[in-house]
From TrEMBL:
Name of protein: Lipopolysaccharide export system protein LptC
Keyword vocabulary terms for this entry: Cell inner membrane, Cell membrane, Membrane, Transmembrane, Transmembrane helix
Membrane-spanning residues: none
Organism whose genome encodes this protein: Cognatiluteimonas weifangensis
Subcellular location, record wording: Cell inner membrane
Length: 184
């Protein structure tokens, strides 16, 4: 599996979190007017397993805390860990210091030491950056920060990333460096 697959899985996770967010907010919007702002919630030390339409695991989200802001209806997560199964049921891991989901579920922001790691059973692929913005409806992931993609035989580094998962194309915006690393 290559890093493009990783980004595809990350966008899928963002889409599912967005869908879950919209579903959770749907009921709150209907009862929110008379509830005096009591419709927000906080989850502590939780694990969320999201299923696809066929009932298979799409992703698992673990975090020590997730809270919804009653004012703007956004959700914030502390140290989220997304576990994304690949076609062989091995898990990609996506970590960050914090995560944020827009009220409409159309944007996911991962901030601080964002780490995407391929499964240990497969090809060792890793993506590192300080921030990653995911727009599931547009099949788009971006980062204005420095991004490092490491895989067997190469290290690719640049400032600014834009990837379109539908077309499987990516672009590092500036200061791009590629390094060949012989395998031992």
């Amino acid at each position: 599996m290559n890093w493009r697959t990783t980004l595809t899985l990350l966008l899928l996770a963002g889409a599912l979190v967005s869908g879950w967010s919209v579903w959770m907010h749907r009921g709150a919007a209907e009862t929110g007017a008379g509830s005096g702002g009591r419709s927000d919630y906080v989850l502590h030390d939780f694990e969320l397993v999201a299923l696809d339409d066929a009932g298979r695991e799409s992703f698992t989200l673990r975090a020590p805390r997730m809270a919804r802001d009653p004012g703007d209806r956004t959700m914030a997560m502390q140290t989220p860990l997304f576990l994304l199964p690949d076609s062989e049921n091995h898990y990609w891991q996506v970590r960050a210091r914090s995560g944020w989901v827009a009220a409409d579920g159309k944007e996911l922001r991962l901030r601080g030491d964002v780490r995407v790691d391929g499964p240990p059973q497969g090809r060792k692929v890793a993506l590192r950056t300080e921030q990653l913005n995911v727009f599931p409806d547009r099949d788009l992931a971006t980062s204005p920060a420095v991004v490092t993609i490491t895989q067997p035989g190469s290290i690719l580094r640049g400032r600014g990333l834009e990837t379109n998962l539908a077309s499987k194309r990516y672009e590092l915006k500036s200061q791009v460096h590629s390094r060949y690393v012989p395998q031992r």
